[in-house]
């Protein structure tokens, strides 16, 4: 029987959760008010490195509305509690204890030293002003190379070093390729560049917050988190609580971008205080606290060597990375550069590859996952290098990519980094992008502007990328010494009236899970989209899961939903056969009905649901339930890809950059909801472009964050961004039944190098081959002036640059 119902998968539906999210008529953590609830405010160190000589809280304890004041020694007198790090990347990795509140030494500006508990938030914050802390300042170490220099001040004196860990991958040792050193010795072209990935702030819309209620049989924590299940397990392990007595709820969460993947000192602090006082407590940070105390992202120095023959064939890639961990280790922070290690080779057929990363401590806020987590950094490095190689060889930058990328007929393809890309078609995505962009026409215009000496020069930037997402096969994570697995869990409950509840371990924070999961289940079970409710974010109703990050929700969590739906149908089939008095082999299922082949006899899933509920007429030995669950562990990552093209106009007299057009064609496999895909791409592009042009977390020489508000830390508005032209090609993934690939990080990963390549391309004839991000007008202008002066006042040919320009003039 042929279905006449329009499929839900592939339909551009508006998100069902948007009405409550956009209007704000929902429950955020800071909306919660519990009977007798008290409020917390944290006093934070103004110094990046100092001994705590004394803390006088006498006046604060008697301030209006204050119930209690705690220092680190009050909450953890034995100094036994340390925040967890789930990714020890090497056996000898240095892992200093990060306390809930600093007791003896503060190691970054913004570290908490005391907490006030009061009846109102205002009273708690007022009382902070009366706490007197006597600090003895210590030498501060900032900057990756400074931290590794001989005689540098130590962030943690007891470690004896600022080096956290060194992690190495070599294709010759791994058996995935040949020796890079041989490639360097024998290749016709050896090109070296240094790139800087500046420090960024995730800048999510909703600041972090948590409420802890210790009353009753369970300790209940509400948190603005991406990882309620991980938070539950880590809270129990960190504080020595029985896990079955801990319940974590992530209500609607206003964005995360990796910035809410952590297990927070403030969450542990709130739990300890709630238990101590026997009353519910709430902590909500201010935006200023977010900037200094929530983890930061990126912050790397990349020294990259690429080797090739004169015909443009690449022969080797060597990456030496320095990564700033900040003062402590985040939950997955040490492993973030390691994720990038597998992506520097990108879509290209390198025969030799060497990667070495040194993680470093500095007196700054710790770094951890930020949208893309290691993969944007890697994509930036390789896509900048492909442009540099093209210039060195006198080739068009698109030509050098096409010569070296994996052809569509070569999939599945095992890379020099050891990953097997299951599917892709870089040629198709690039051809469509070039057509939409008018690549050849813009090249002609660029040539005309160069020849006419136009003060506004045109540059064209390319980023042909892939990424590994859908984190992750558990065995792969295990091989990388990650503490947890990468599976995901889902359950489907069929209610008596045929309505459906989907319980997912993938906890959304704005991605549209409720809509996409409803579309998947509507197609699988043939029930109306409107009859499906998706439940997530509560470890009591969704009792197991690995949560949301790494573009894993659909390609791991969504597949668990698919498999759970298959199990529902498997349970329903013998019941349907019994009700229609036929053999199971005579049945087919379509559009929500089991039908007897070749007849008009059928019964709907709703009819079966009621028959199961009543249990009056079931086959012998059949359980009266259709409810089913599945835990899915992927066999491979998913590998979305795309081609992003940017045209940038640079005013050579002022350094101002204007993005004239931006075209991207992404291949994310089968799109469950194209409208959600479009939204994810748009948001990702905004963040990637922001890194290229606007954002930078800057510390002064004393370690104080000078970009600690949105007045100083520049986020783009809609007026600062162009209208994007987006499109898709589709090569389904072969490793999951939906054929889907991740999309959450694609725009961020691809856009930063596309924009920087465009700006550098616009001014390269002035002798510029790099400008440090963000590409502010001052930095661009300085680079032009420096390059022109070095070239004797004459425009130099491509490839005559000066290396990375670290121009002065401030971040904004």
Automatic annotation (TrEMBL):
Keywords: Molybdenum, Oxidoreductase
Compositionally skewed regions (Polar residues) per UniProt: 725-737
Keyword Oxidoreductase listed: yes
SUPFAM superfamilies the UniProt entry points to: CO dehydrogenase molybdoprotein N-domain-like (SSF54665), Molybdenum cofactor-binding domain (SSF56003)
Cited InterPro entries: Ald_Oxase/Xan_DH_a/b, Ald_Oxase/Xan_DH_a/b_sf, Ald_Oxase/xanthine_DH-like, AldOxase/xan_DH_MoCoBD1, AldOxase/xan_DH_MoCoBD2, AldOxase/xan_DH_Mopterin-bd_sf
Name recorded for this polypeptide: Carbon-monoxide dehydrogenase large subunit
Superkingdom: Bacteria
UniProt GO MF annotations: iron ion binding; oxidoreductase activity
Region (Disordered) residue spans: 725-744
Aldehyde oxidase/xanthine dehydrogenase a/b hammerhead domain boundaries: 23-139
Cofactor(s) needed for function: Mo-molybdopterin cytosine dinucleotide
PANTHER family: ALDEHYDE OXIDASE 1-RELATED, XANTHINE DEHYDROGENASE
UniProt cross-references to Pfam families, sorted A to Z: Ald_Xan_dh_C (PF01315), MoCoBD_1 (PF02738), MoCoBD_2 (PF20256)
Source organism (scientific name): Amycolatopsis decaplanina DSM 44594
């Amino acid at each position: 029987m042929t279905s006449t119902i329009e499929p839900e998968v592939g339909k551009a539906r508006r998100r069902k959760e948007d009405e409550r999210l956009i209007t704000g008529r929902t429950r955020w953590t800071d909306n919660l008010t519990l009977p007798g609830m008290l409020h917390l405010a944290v006093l934070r160190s103004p110094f990046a490195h100092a001994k705590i000589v004394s803390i006088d809280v006498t006046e604060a304890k008697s301030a209006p509305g204050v119930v209690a004041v705690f220092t680190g020694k009050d909450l953890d007198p034995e100094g036994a509690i340390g925040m967890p790090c789930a990714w020890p990347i090497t056996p000898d990795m240095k892992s200093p204890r990060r306390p809930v509140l600093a007791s003896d030494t503060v190691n970054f500006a913004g570290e908490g030293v005391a907490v006030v508990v009061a009846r109102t938030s205002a009273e708690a914050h007022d009382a902070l002003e009366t706490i007197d802390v006597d600090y003895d300042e210590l030498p501060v170490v900032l900057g990756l190379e400074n931290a590794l220099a001989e005689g540098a001040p130590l962030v943690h004196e007891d470690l004896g070093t600022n080096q956290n860990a060194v992690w190495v991958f070599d294709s010759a040792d791994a058996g995935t390729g040949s020796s890079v050193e041989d490639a360097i010795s024998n290749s016709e072209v050896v090109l070296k560049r240094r790139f800087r990935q500046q420090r960024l702030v995730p800048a999510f819309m909703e600041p972090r917050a948590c409420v802890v209620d210790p009353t009753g049989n369970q300790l209940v924590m509400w948190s603005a988190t991406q990882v309620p299940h991980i938070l539950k397990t880590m809270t129990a392990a960190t504080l020595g609580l029985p896990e079955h007595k801990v319940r974590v709820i992530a209500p609607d969460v206003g964005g995360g971008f990796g910035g809410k993947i952590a297990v927070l000192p403030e969450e542990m602090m709130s739990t300890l205080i709630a238990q101590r006082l026997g009353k519910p407590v709430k902590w909500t940070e201010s935006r200023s606290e977010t900037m200094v105390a929530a983890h930061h992202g990126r912050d790397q120095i990349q020294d990259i060597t690429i080797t090739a023959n004169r015909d443009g064939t690449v022969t080797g890639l060597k990456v030496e990375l320095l990564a700033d961990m900040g003062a402590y280790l985040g939950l997955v922070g040490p492993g973030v550069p390691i994720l990038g290690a597998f992506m520097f080779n990108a879509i290209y057929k390198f025969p030799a590859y060497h990667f070495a990363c040194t993680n470093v401590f500095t007196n700054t806020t710790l770094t951890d996952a930020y949208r893309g987590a290691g993969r944007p950094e890697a994509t930036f490095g390789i896509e900048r290098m492909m442009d540099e190689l093209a210039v060195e060889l006198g080739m068009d930058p698109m030509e050098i990519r096409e010569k070296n990328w994996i052809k569509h007929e070569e999939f599945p393809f095992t890379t020099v980094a050891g990953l097997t890309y299951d599917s892709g078609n870089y040629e198709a995505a690039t051809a469509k992008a070039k057509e939409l962009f008018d690549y050849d026409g813009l090249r002609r215009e660029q040539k005309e502007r160069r020849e006419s000496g136009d003060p506004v020069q045109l540059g064209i930037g390319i980023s042909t990328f892939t990424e590994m997402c859908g984190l992750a096969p558990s065995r792969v994570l295990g091989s990388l010494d990650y503490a947890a697995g990468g599976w995901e869990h889902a359950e489907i409950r069929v209610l008596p009236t045929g309505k459906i509840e989907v319980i997912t371990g993938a906890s959304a924070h704005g991605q549209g899970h409720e809509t996409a999961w409803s579309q998947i289940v509507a197609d699988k079970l043939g029930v109306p989209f409107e009859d499906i409710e998706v439940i997530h974010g509560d470890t009591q109703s969704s009792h197991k899961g690995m949560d949301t990050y790494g573009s894993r929700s659909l390609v791991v969590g969504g597949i668990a939903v698919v498999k759970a739906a298959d199990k529902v149908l498997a349970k329903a089939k013998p019941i349907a056969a019994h009700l229609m008095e036929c053999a199971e082999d005579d049945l087919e299922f379509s559009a929500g009905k089991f039908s007897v082949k070749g007849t008009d006899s059928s019964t709907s899933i709703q009819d079966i649901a009621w028959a199961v509920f009543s249990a009056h007429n079931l086959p012998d030995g059949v359980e009266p339930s259709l409810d089913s669950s599945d835990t899915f562990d992927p066999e491979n990552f998913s590998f979305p890809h795309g081609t992003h093209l940017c045209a940038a106009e640079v005013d050579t007299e002022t350094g101002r950059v204007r993005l004239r057009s931006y075209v991207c064609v992404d291949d994310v496999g089968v799109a469950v909801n194209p409208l959600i895909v479009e939204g994810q791409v748009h948001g990702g592009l905004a963040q990637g472009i922001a890194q290229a042009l606007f954002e930078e977390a800057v510390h002064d020489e004393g370690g104080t964050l000078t970009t600690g508000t949105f007045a100083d830390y520049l986020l783009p508005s809609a007026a600062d961004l162009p209208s994007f032209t987006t499109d898709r090609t589709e090569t389904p993934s072969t490793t999951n039944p939906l054929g889907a690939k991740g999309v959450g990080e694609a725009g961020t990963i691809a856009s930063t190098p596309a924009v920087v390549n465009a700006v550098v391309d616009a001014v390269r004839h002035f002798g510029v081959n790099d400008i440090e991000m963000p590409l502010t007008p001052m930095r661009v202008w300085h680079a032009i002036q420096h390059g022109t002066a070095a070239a004797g006042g004459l425009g130099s040919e491509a490839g005559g640059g000066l290396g990375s320009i670290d121009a002065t003039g401030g971040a904004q």
